[in-house]
Amino acid sequence: MSNEIREKDHEWVKNVHSNFDRLLASLEKLLSKQQPSVFNDELLTDKEVAHLLKVSRRTLQDYRNNGILPYTQVGGKILYRTSDIERTLMKGYKEAYRLK
């Protein structure tokens, strides 16, 4: 490459910008498909979740059986991701109705 100054309308500069744009589009596409890693999320036991939600462990079992609260099972241990708990709570969130 020579020491000449490249202007923004120079073909080489346009080519570099085009390559960056394609790379950026590819990265955005990859990142949009990426699911959050379970290791970036805190895992809670059923006892911890029951205490947090102020429900019994039996109620948590009903939530699992009815597909209300996502979970994972490792061996005999049931674990919940904090993001799943928050998402489930936000699904049921209702704005307060205020009379005027």
Explain how this protein is built.
The chain has 100 residues and is mainly α. The chain folds into 2 domains: 7-36; 38-91, Arc Repressor Mutant, subunit A. The protein is 50% helix and 11% strand. It contains 4 helices and 3 strands; from the N terminus they run αβααββα. It has helices at residues 11-33, 46-53, 57-65, 82-91; strands at residues 43-45, 72-74, 77-81. Strands 1-3-2 form a 3-stranded antiparallel beta sheet. Strand 2 and strand 3 form a beta hairpin. The longest helix has 23 residues, at 11-33. The protein is elongated and about 75 Å long. The termini are far apart. The model has no long low-confidence stretch (mean pLDDT 83).
Q: What portion of the residues fall into strands of 2 or more residues?
A: 5-15%
Q: Topology as H/E string?
A: HEHHEEH
What does the radius of gyration come to? 25 Å
Average of pLDDT: 83
Terminal CA distance reads 72 Å
| Number of separate strands | 3
The major beta sheet can be summarized as: 3 strands, antiparallel
Number of helices: 4
Strand order of the largest sheet: 1-3-2
Spans of at least 5 consecutive residues with low confidence: none
**Overall domain count:** 2
